[in-house]
Amino acid sequence: MPKLAGKNSKKRIVRLIYSGWGQIKIRNALDLIISVMSCLPPFQNALLLTQALTHRSYVNEQSELTENNERLEFLGDAILAFLVGELLYQKYPAMNEAELTRLRSNLVKEEQLAQLGIEIGLGELMRLGKGAIKDRGRSNPTLLADTFEAIIGAYYLDSGLNAVKNYLHGLFIPVASHLVSQQSESPSFIDAKNLFQQWALANFASNPEYAIIDVTGPPHAREFTAEVRVNNLLYGTGKGKRKQDATKAAAEDALKRCQLQ
């Protein structure tokens, strides 16, 4: 995981982030905080990192501050969606659109981002108001996820898209691999045609055969009917506005008949 660039730089950033603390408290916490910050992206601009860690509850209690992390959170959310989508597109060429979308949603949902926030130490680093701290804000999943997004937005402004991409790959590839292995047995995760093919090969050592058996409707609104057979035995039929949709529906019908779905 990327490291911040040297202990002296870390000390300067810590003092900036915790400028409201007394010097004794900063010295006492310095080693712990530096250890936590080693999991963050290597920022060049400490002000951007500081803003990314600053919740509006903290700004409301500091008359000299005006900037919180909400705009950076907005930017980070968009960058995460794009880069995680690109990562999955490259890593899983056999997945269809629905599968990729479902996997990306699981990777960027609040619970997952909050867990990553915990792992990189954001709970200890977030600048929160006294009320938010009292309400256990440092372990609040929403605050952790929002701050994680803000960190990504700030790092993009600090170091560019490729730097963010490299950092995110280190975080998300292991999580994606775990989710895929965990969900790959679920019919709702694998495309129906792929799942039925696996079943047919396992039971008969034969691939399913699909055929369009009927076409109805005017040219601008066709409806196709498909069937799927294994060793010439009919297992399912389905309809759709496209041939692809009809064959998928036939596979889903076959899965239901075989009690696989």
From TrEMBL:
Its EC number is 3.1.26.3. The active site is at 77, 149. It holds the Pfam family Ribonucleas_3_3. It catalyses: Endonucleolytic cleavage to 5'-phosphomonoester. The keyword Magnesium applies. Keywords: Cytoplasm, Endonuclease, Hydrolase, Magnesium, Metal-binding, mRNA processing, Nuclease, RNA-binding, rRNA processing, rRNA-binding, tRNA processing. Its cofactor is Mg(2+). Mg(2+) binds at residues 73, 146, 149. One of its GO terms (molecular function) is ribonuclease III activity. GO terms for biological process: mRNA processing; regulation of gene expression; rRNA processing; tRNA processing. The keyword Magnesium applies. It is found in: Cytoplasm. One of its GO terms (cellular component) is cytoplasm. Residues 191-260 form the DRBM domain. Residues 43-160 form the RNase III domain. Homodimer. NCBIfam families: RNaseIII. Belongs to the ribonuclease III family. Digests double-stranded RNA. Involved in the processing of primary rRNA transcript to yield the immediate precursors to the large and small rRNAs (23S and 16S). Processes some mRNAs, and tRNAs when they are encoded in the rRNA operon. Processes pre-crRNA and tracrRNA of type II CRISPR loci if present in the organism. HAMAP family: RNase_III. This is Ribonuclease 3. It comes from Microcystis aeruginosa PCC 9443.
